[in-house]
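Field guide to reading this record: the first block holds the primary sequence, the second block holds the structure written as discrete tokens, and the final block holds curator observations. Each block starts with its own label. This record concerns sn-glycerol-3-phosphate transport system permease protein UgpA, catalogued under organism Bradyrhizobium ontarionense.

BLOCK 1 — SEQUENCE
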Amino acid sequence: MEKSVVFNGRLLPYLLLAPQLTITLIFFYWPASQAIRQSFLREDAFGLNSEFVGLENYQALFAQPEYYTAIGTTAVFSSLVTVLSLGVALLFATQADKNLKGGSVYKTLMIWPYAVAPAIAGVLWFFIFHPTLGTLARPLRLMGFDWNPMLNGTHALILVVMAAVWKQVAYNFLFFLAGLQAIPKSVIEAGAIDGAGPLRRFWTIIFPLLSPTTFFLLVVNIVYVFFETFGIIDAVTSGGPAGSTTTMVYKVFADGRLGGDLGSSAAQSVVLMVIVIALTAIQFRYVERKVQY
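BLOCK 2 — STRUCTURE
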């Protein structure tokens, strides 16, 4: 006969949930509600005087060609970082899952970059690819490739993508490796006995069993690209040159903190929040159907 655990006190479950609920209310719902409120106001740079203007901030925002450029840059940037960081991490994880000599050292070195702050990661890559002082940029210039992320927008975007991917690969690697180690070896061996080659075993056995981990990382990486890459862009390019690396989250900062337009900045943050929530909902609605638990 199965026994079930019963809490004697009715308040205990609420007390256990209280810390997390408090943190969520203070650091998510309260700032989100303030952003929504401010998006309907026109405020001075110091936030001392405000005037209700309705949807004027949104109307002015969507009348800016620069905002649509930022949306396009965000789409390209987020797609590249998400696909590359997941692909590279999965490749490294499959290699680390093998019986390699010194494998523990290799795994430790792979995880280290995650401890680096985004701004520091951006500065490191900037020094590596600095057009005149960079250890890798100088050979490129000697080979005739005019690499200059300080003046060329495409080069600047490539640089911040590489820095963002390098920063996130460690996180993805950790989860992919844990997912690979949780797959029963007997299932893979059965595929090998049936005559399936390494690639066929990976796509028909290993990758489907990794789908819950992949789906989780896909959601996490989307949030990472939209929000946590701000430090990289701010430290490396400051949105330049000529706005070529200005993503939506950096434009929120540039218009609000640097430009003093708090109403437009709040409206942009609301639009960004809606986009991220919509993308997450779409992933749970459609992508999760292909996840095999």
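BLOCK 3 — OBSERVATIONS
The CA atoms of residues 22 and 28 lie 10 Å apart.
The chain has 13 helices and two strands.
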